[in-house]
Amino acid sequence: MWRPDPRDHSKKGKILKPGVAYREVAKWVIGSTLESRCSNHSSIWSCPFTRSGGYRALALWDASGRCGHGHCTTVHYGVDQSYRSYLTLDGQKIKIKKNQVPIGVKPIFVQNQP
Question: Is the model's pLDDT at 1 over the cut of 90?
Fold first, then answer.
């Protein structure tokens, strides 16, 4: 998840992509409540989360997606118009356009916040 500084192990080192993904998923779920169990429709999985103040979110992914040579396939997936943005495993926050999000084997976190 991270690589220590090769010259001085007492220094911070560098967080690797799996460490970034772990950090981002922790941000998604810590302080959230899993509203109900995760469910699937064919290969598409969703897990509903809530927080105080009316916050709602869905973790979404397509279990049939594939990754190779640094690229992962995605499909367009329609979400309710109340969802405004989504978060990615690499820490991006992206505005949802036309109620469609790209989902693949890497989960995204669709939220009702801009």
Answer: no
